[in-house]
Batch of 4 targets.
Target 1
Amino acid sequence: MSSPPEKREALVIGAGLSGSAVAHSLAVRGWAVTVLDQAPGVGAGASGLPAGLAAPHVSPDDNVLSRITRAGVQATLKRAQALLHSGTDWALSGVLEHNLAGKRRLPATCADQHSTPASPAQIAAAGLPQGTPALWHAQAGWIRPRQLVAAQLQTPGVQVRWGQQVQGIARRGDAWAVTDAQGQTLGQAPWLVVACAFDSLALLQPLPGFGVPLNPLRGQVSFGHMADLTEGQRQLLPPFPVNGHGSFISGVPTPEGPPGWFIGSTFERNCEQAPVREEDHAANQVRLASLLPALGEAMARQFGPNLVQGWAGLRCTLPNRLPAVGPIDRARLPGLCLSTGMGARGISLAVLCGELTAAWLNQEPLPLPESLAKHLAAERFVRA
């Protein structure tokens, strides 16, 4: 194994889940990290999602995505426990997965014992009929991504510069330079990590021999305040998050502060704008009705325009649903790394991808077996 770089300075473009995770992972290893973001502050992009889940993907054959998300969820929960306040920023609540399509079967043999068939008591607590196919993920829970991003950016060694409109990246000698639309240099360092979701595409396209097929994915969450629910509606709320066809979470602080309920997200591919739309509230109402039928029927009026609120954001995804992480092309583009393509799994994967990037740069043992890490490597998109 070669020795780690002597000059441990890095620029990170993007201060969302991915960029903040990379910045934290490098800074705790003694790196000086400058993060550039076009937004005025934390949570302006997809990381502004008011609440989401860290929960594993399961498959009968325990495929690559399942094994990677399982490792990712463990990394996220460990990070949350270290940096966040339990009960207000996150909770190891467990998650019940309503197996709507019948596809989420557990493998016959699996080293992970944290995902099991849901018990009759858990199914009943969710308000679902006995016999409903469901799984229980014990090592899973809800997180407020904005709080995780803010905590990671506060790591000693991380400097954040907001309002930076990055337009281009270029290699200058032994360093990478980041410039704005006027060609002014916004920052320069031996190492550059591009972690700005779908905006990464415009920065990477001019580079020789690299084509990462990023696609935008718009998602909308509908939510409301717990205080607006009737006693009858409250009685039907599950005591833990439920996912399957989207996810339902309740009792978690809304962006304004008071506790709320959340259902979503919608999935709209090849959409580069993220307005909140009335038709997506209707789609989320249908989503709740299929996920938790009794609750969905009881909460129908909560989707009225005077009660429901919405949040929409853009994620970005890759064809095989796995992120692109780490060095892009060590031979032609030395010092340039990527951490993007998390899709709808940013909460479950970003922390792991930050650790993986830092391990590659620091020449450390990887946090994943090499056989799994290669499926995430950004270098898989290098063209001959």
Target 2
Amino acid sequence: MSDECYCGYIKFQWKKSESHVVWTDKFYANLRDFKSVRETDNFVYVQVGHDAIRDNNHARDIIRMVRETGGWITRLDFYIDIAEHFDIETYYTYMLEQWKAKKGRERIGMPIFWTSPEGDTCYIGKRSSDRMLRVYDKRNEILKRKGVDIDFDLTRYECEIKRKAVRRYETLFMAGNERAILQDMAARWALPQICDNPEKMLPLESGRGPRDPLAFVRRYRNILSEAYSDSPAEFMCIIKDER
């Protein structure tokens, strides 16, 4: 079964104790490349970001190592890219109306609309909540950050999982059931399109090494080649820069 969404961020920790050494030589060697290790007198904290996670199997290997050395996961992010235009402002307005119509625990978090040079973003939920959604214009973000127009609409849907919700999503992910994660996102945040249009979902290419700054070119290579079909020289320049 192919991946239906991807793990883009993992945060985990261990409690230090004299009787249980969490820093095995093998694990520490693997963590050196992540550049996000923080230690206190009582705990060790590690963050593994998008650039360090090669694919879902690699993410599972990291989670498995955490479990085997007595640590636990405190945050997981999952995302999906859909090659389509999505009216983020209209979505925000709709979700805000839904939030106002409900009360108390029926609410899933007040939507926030944010506009920046990188495009529109809708947030639903707070940093302190168990689950938070981000929806944003990935095409415009790539254009502003990389200076390359990929020539097709692209929307990213990304959920941030923390606290009590982590164990459920971790179990689904480790079992290879990304479909259930995607369905949960779609139902919770009124996003049926992320489940109904699998042909528009962009696959993530696997690789042995860490992702490079132009990893998005690899991921969208097929679509880029079609977009630049009238100017193959320009496409080859992009691929050359990637290498």
Target 3
Amino acid sequence: NMISVVDWKFDGAEIKNLILAKGESISRYVRSEDKYFKGGLTWSHSTYGTSFSMRILPPNTIINIEGPGVFDLHEQLYYVLALMNSKVASYIFETTIGSIHVQSGDINKFPYCYNCNFVGSVDKLAKSSVFISKFDWDSFETSWNFQHHPLLREISTIAEAFDQWQSECDDRFNQLKSNEEELNRIFIDIYGLQDELIPDVEDKDVTVRTADLGRDIRSFISYAVGCMFGRYSIYEDGLMYAGGEWDYNKYEDAAWRADGKPETLEFYQNTYFMPDEDNIIPITDEEYFSDDIVERFVEFVETVYGKDTLEENLDFIAQALGNKGNSSREVIRNYFIKDFYKDHLKVYQKRPIYWLFDSGKQNGFKALIYMHRYDADTVGRVRTDYLHRAQNYVETAMKSAEYTIENTSVASEKSKAMKAVSKYTKQLAEMQTYDQAIAHVANQRVEIDLDDGVKVNYAKFQGVEVAREGKKALKVDLLAKI
């Protein structure tokens, strides 16, 4: 649940000054400051029908009203953690509080029984459960400790990679369930609640994720896009770039280091997958660009799993996506056009790190950029290097379709060409309006500040006025709405 960042520079001087400027007391907002960054245990005081549970609060974090904390537990930390995640704790809170809210005072009143005879077993099971849960959380890119995608493996097919991942997920799930049931058994005996409780845990209450083909393939695609932009690299674990000075050379260095290891030589096929140089990746409904997102994704899959199994792997990915299309590439293209950004917004809780330039419903023009690599010339490059080229491609395609209408006698071909002309006409109209808006912003050379966050920076590219109809302004959003 560590998803927010607090500016605590100079002991929170800016926050405290803002509070004082409002004429209010600092202590009303900043509480238990002596406990900040100490580490301990925390919980969500509003459980909303779920069982009460605690989790470890790392030392680099602070508490708030929605996530209170327990501190100074020392060698009893894992024992308390195990107890508070047991059926015994849930039973006692349900009996004594009868509310969805568990406050610090409720924790203070908890009948704590520390049994030295079980400490060794409890600590071992609790530490195992923490390790399992943390490994599960870190397997997905929203974790601060994400290293690489779990389907990135030294084998030739993504189907086999998923099978291995699924087996590992099942093992973790079963082990965590076993750990929790054993801890329940121990604490039920300690508290003498054998007549009231059973140690069994239902599958729905085990909190690590099992493998999910659709979700995991989508997250694999998201990781691939991250590699396209240089956020990640398949040759080095962890976050490669999230702001600061951009250095393309370090990706080549990482690839060469990986290639020098015997165990990775065959895996990466001696073909390096490098990030996009200009931080702009077009998404088109037809193959207008040789470096559009589908071609780059195909290149990514080939680099990871090898050329010999490329089509097999693309077919597997397409089937997992379940979108319509006559070929695996068409299915993948439809996913990028229609669903990728929706999934990205969902994963990043409407604070996207990849921004979608989008001309509108006709899919005339779409292109992704990586927010952290944005500079004042990015919008201009999107316009001249991609939007204008896309317009030329559509105009050429429309002329070809018009030629077919005039020269073919085959009814089906003529009908298909007429539909194409209708589509291209709408797309060109949409792109022309979009061009007016993007030209306005490109000329302004808008700067962004990453410290302002996504919401503030994103708004700078929305609601661009391109014309007026009487008193009403015609406004265009450069980026897809969030």
Target 4
Amino acid sequence: MNTRKAVYFLAPCQVAVQEEKLPTLETGQARVKTHLSAISSGTESLIYRGQFPENLEVDPNIPALAGKFRYPLKYGYCAVGQIVDVGAGVDTAHRGQWVFSFQPHESFFTAAIDELLPIPQDVPPEDAVFLPNMETAVNLVMDGKPLIGEQALVCGQGIIGLLTTALLARFPLAGLVTLDRYPLRREASLQLGASASLSPDRENTLAQIQALQPNGADLAFELSGSPDALDQTITLTGFDGRVILGSWYGQKRANLDLGGRFHRSRIRLLSSQVSTLSSELSGRWTKARRFQVAWQMLRIISPSRFITHRFALQDAAQAYQHIDQHPEDSIQIILTYP
């Protein structure tokens, strides 16, 4: 085997699966056959639609995603597979090992052995593919610092929002309200422990939330990917409350009303992004330690139940079209590999 198949974003709304030569296996590397990969519907929708900031680095912290945002582009960061070969200097005992790696959607990939995360034996591969999402949710909660008795609000119940809700539901909060426009996601949110899950588009939603949280949210998360939701989130946050912004809007602009109540409410707005750790935690926490927490939460929450669709790699274009045109009936879509 000297070729692989890889998903390429060629232009807005144009996706193709192309065959390309496998990179040479170098010293210290392993070759992995991908078995499944998860599509990050929020970030990858921006790439699919061409809404990414041009010439921004894709991710300077992930070697497989080096370079700038520009077409043609390989992307993805949720790959699970088995090591099939190793280069010089790598113990052959690694062959057959199940691993997770931050890699684009491609049938085979090579990576330094220390960039591969061994999957614990008690974590099924379909749960392991959620590792980046769970790490993100853990990071969001760490940045939010929920306190006993607080009222929390989560806007957006895509997979990141749902996992964040699942973690928050384990805290002794006074209330946990979530917002999402799609009934499928609201139902999942309630199953995970939200005390109420409402549509942001209904006329009486604001009144309902104010009845549930009359003093506003102490802690709010904006995870919908919609810039308009940020203004709504700020409106629903109480005096001296915290708003954790986990969405990436790409080129989309947020129109905020900061001249009204926000000005006098001492609301704190914090950007939270998983590539780094908060400086307040870096003295005792590392990414490796945070991964340990993420693996444990995967065991507890079993997020594979939120896989709503599986597409074969060669049907990747249909998968992205489905996410773009029918977001109401999907939570997590994965690609499978022959």
